[in-house]
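tool_call: predict_structure(chain=1)
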Amino acid sequence: MRVKVACVGGGPAGLYLSILLKRQDPSHDITVHERNPEGSTYGWGVTYWRALLDRLHVCDPESARAIEESSVRWNEGVAHVRDLATRRPGDEGHGIGRHRLLEILADRARALGVRLEFDREITAEDLPEADLVVACDGVHSALRTHHADDFGAELAPGRNSYVWLGTSKVFDSFTFAFVETGHGWVWCYGYPFSAEQSTCVIECAPETLAGLGLDRASEADGLADLEKLFAHILDGHPLTGRATAADGGSPWLTFRTLTNRAWHRGNLVLLGDAAHTTHYSIGAGTTLALEDAIALAEALRESADLPDALVRYERERKSALLTPQSAARYSARWYENLARYIHLPPEQMFALLGQRHSPLLPYVPPQLYYRLDKAAGQSEALRRFKRWLGPKLARGAHTRALTSRD
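tool_result:
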C-alpha cells in the first residue's frame, strides 16, 4: 500500500527512516523537511559500536558500506589522571563526522527517490498533508511541544556543565583526561572521527566552572584556558568551538534527560531525540536514533494498520531503551560523584570508570566493588549474584526517592 510520509527534521533518524521505507516500497511518497540549509549541521564526531554497524549492513548495505569506509576505529581506552596514564583494551569503537554521516544518508535517500527540502521550517500549524508525520526535530521538538499534554514530556536536568569541542589532535584511542585545579576537577572525553580531527567533550561541576571563570569567559579566552589545562593530551593542537550563540551566551550546557509518557498521537510519531535522550557519556545517541528508525520501519512493514504499527513501535522501543537509559543515568552519576573514585590507584580507577554503568557500584565501597568485579571475572556464581544484586539495590533506592517526594 502506497503511503505518504513527512519526516520533520533532517538528522540521522529521519534520513535513515526515509531510506528504509523507500527500500521497503519504492512507491511510498516520502519527504524530509529540514529547517537548516544543507550542510550546515553543527557538531563534531559521533560514536557507535560494531553491533550497530552489523545491523546497518543488514538493513541497507549500500549506506552501511559508505559509513564504515568513512569511519575511524579504536579498540583501546586511555585514562590520564594528573601525570599518570593507564591504558586498557576494550570493544571496537567507531567514530564518524556528523557532517559526513548526514551527507552519506542524504545522498542515499535522494538516490532512492526521497525528496529533501532544506531551509524549510515546519510548525504544528502548517503540517504537510501525509498519512504519517514523523517528528524527528530534536530534543526541543516544536511538534511535540505543541501537543505537550498528549506526549507528557519530562526533562530532568543533570548537575554538571559540559561543552562540545573539536581538535586537530587525532587521538589513537578513546581518551579520558582528568585534571585537578584549585576549584575542583575538570575532565575530557576525546575520540577521533576522521584522519584529521577528534571530538573533545569537556565536563566539570558547576562550582568548578564558576571558580575557573569559564562560565563568564569569551569563547576565545575559554578555549585558551582549556588548551592550557589539557596541554598534556593535545600536544600543541588547538581546540575549536562552535560559532557562539546569537545572544552571546555561554557555550557551556547542562545535559537534560528527556522521556515521554507517549510516543504517538494520531498520525504523529516521535523519533530519536524528540522521543528520548541519554547522557552523552555512554555515546549512544546516534545509535538509538537509528535503532528507532529501524524499529518504526519494521512496525510499518509488519502491520497494515497505522495505529497498531505505532503502538508496536512505541512498546518495542520503550522496552529496548530500559537498559541504555539506566546505563546513562548511572554513568552521569559516576561523573557527578567523581571524588568517590578519583583518588583510587590508577588501575582501579580506570576499571571502575569502565563499570560506571553498573547499578551496583553506587552502593558498594569502590575498592570492595573492584575486588568483587575482579573475582566475578573468574566465577559464574559471583557474576550472577552481581547481576541480581545491582538492580535490586537500584529499585530500592528509586522507591525510597519517590516516597521521600510525597
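agent: The longest helix spans residues 306-336. Proceeding to next step.
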